[in-house]
Amino acid sequence: MQSKFWIVMLAIVKIAGQQFKVQAGDSLYVPHLQGKNTGDKVEFNDVLLIDNAGTLTVGADVKTVITAEVVSGLVQGDKVIAFKMKRRKGFRKKHGHRTHYTKIKIESIA
């Protein structure tokens, strides 16, 4: 009986100071990319690691570019509430925010 192995190219890419594990066809939410609208093409050059069928390439040897398409230009995350209170003092402070994201779809790792 033969076993079938799925050969998938995998990459670790740094986007806006955060590291993401990506494959071709993945869609993910990244921190908001200023000036990018729906349908725009984006390239990420800061690739940290490539796994090509079990062969790892790390560091300065990586000469790969990740291309992606912007699916949604602006997506708001869930509301986060920061509430501060000091008991018996009458001090209450409520502050909330929603983090902005951009949804992208990875097209190719080349």
How would you portray this structure in words?
The chain is mostly beta strands. It contains no helices and 8 strands. The chain has one domain (9-109). 0% of the residues lie in helices and 65% in strands. The protein is elongated and about 60 Å long. The mean pLDDT is 92.
Distance between the termini: 34 Å
Number of helices: 0
Q: Biggest sheet, strands in spatial order?
A: 2-1-5-6
The amount of helix comes to: under 10%
Main sheet record: 4 strands, antiparallel
* Broad shape: elongated
What order do the SSEs take from the amino end to the carboxyl end, as H and E?
A: EEEEEEEE
Counting helices, strands and paired strands, the structural category is: mainly beta
Mean pLDDT: 92
Q: Low-confidence spans: pLDDT under 50, at least 5 residues?
A: none
List key phrases describing it.
mainly beta, 110 residues, 8 strands, elongated, four-stranded antiparallel β-sheet
